Every structure is written in structure tokens, then in C-alpha cells.
Amino acid sequence: MARPTPEELEAARDLLVPDVLADGLDVLFCGINPGLMSAATGHHFARPGNRFWPVLYASGFTPRRLHPSEQHLLPQYGLGITNVVARATARADELTDEEFREGGRLLVEKVERLRPRWLAVAGVTAYRTAFGDKKARIGPQERTIGTTRIWALPNPSGLNAHWSLATMAEEFGRLREAASDGSR
Question: Helix 124-131 crosses helix 97-114 at what angle (to 10 degrees)?
Fold first, then answer.
């Protein structure tokens, strides 16, 4: 697959990337919003520097490292992907708090309909804004959506220098263990 041109990336602004969903998933991963590379390719976490796919493998969620174009395989592992805010932007700071709050409301509706065991929001700041929980920290949250538990994960963007690939994989691994223990 050829890398999108700068013009193609700019044309992807505000486009939507379809969710990867199924009923009763073990974990529904939730990004902040699609980047332009994701919107141009139609694949979540598609930017080459994004660590989502390597971390998913390193933490044991998948038996091998998947390419973003293989996102359709996730439901067979009990996994899915959505976003807090659906529209694509070059940077998450282009989004308003209002968009995050509305995205949180829509996300609750989606989770109530699909009933995954865990909702894993990849970006604690996005979680805080979308759900009005200013004190949220990385890890499992007290809040639930019906029987769905919530886990705030570090943002896998390559720009998130506070988390190395190894420490991020460790946190994702904690979620994997919680999701595989069979409890809600």
C-alpha cells in the first residue's frame, strides 16, 4: 500500500474511519480520534510511529504483530476499535472539549448496545474530558457503563514520550490479564 501524499492526507481531514465492532467483545479499544493517516487509509492507528499495533502484540492480545490493514481480524481475538471523537484531524488538540463530551455521550450509547466486557480508552486526558472525570489515572476506573468496566490506557502515539514501548505493553498486559480472568 502506497503512503498517502500530503494532498491526500489533507483531503482526509474530517473524514470518518469505520469502527471495528462486534457484540460482546472482551475489550473495545477507544482511540482519541483518527489522525489523517488513519482517515486516508481507512485503518485505525495507521501512522507509522503509532505504537498501538506493536503494543497489542507485545502485551499478548494478539499472537503476532498485526498491520493496521488487518484490523478486521481483531474481533476473532475478542477485540474491537472505536474513537471518542469520530472526525479525523492532524492533531488531537484541534478537538474541542464539547466534541469530547459529545463523543463520550455517543460512546456510552455504543457500549450499552455492544456490551463489551472492557472499554479501554487510549488516552487518559481524552477519558477525563469525555467523561468529566478530572482525577482519572491510568488503569481501571471506578465508573462502569452497565456491566462494562473501563480502563484508561496511555496514548500509544509516538508523541507520548512519557511511556516507552515496554512500559506501555506492561499496562496493556495488565488490562489483558483483567479481561481474560472471566469477571466483569
Answer: 90
Q: Tell me if 17 sits within 8 A of 88, measured CB to CB.
A: yes
Query: Is 33 an active-site residue?
Result: yes
* Contact (CB, 8 A) for 153 and 45: no
Domains of the chain: 6-180 (3.40.470.10)
C-alpha cell at 60: 499478548
Say which of 43, 44, 50, 155 is annotated catalytic. 44
pLDDT 10s digits, 58-102: 999 999 999 999 999 999 999 999 999 999 999 989 999 999 999
User: Using CA of residue 166, residue 168, residue 172, residue 175, what is the dihedral sign?
Assistant: positive
Query: pLDDT band at 53, cuts 50/70/90?
Result: very high
Query: Cα–Cα distance between 109 and 20 in angstroms, integer?
Result: 16
Asked if residue 81 lies in contact with residue 31, where contact means CB atoms within 8 angstroms, the answer is yes
- pTM of the full structure: 0.95
How, if at all, do strands 139-145 and 148-153 pair?
A: antiparallel
Half-sphere exposure (Cβ direction) of 143: Cα atoms closer than 13 Å: 19
- Does the annotation mark 44 as catalytic? yes
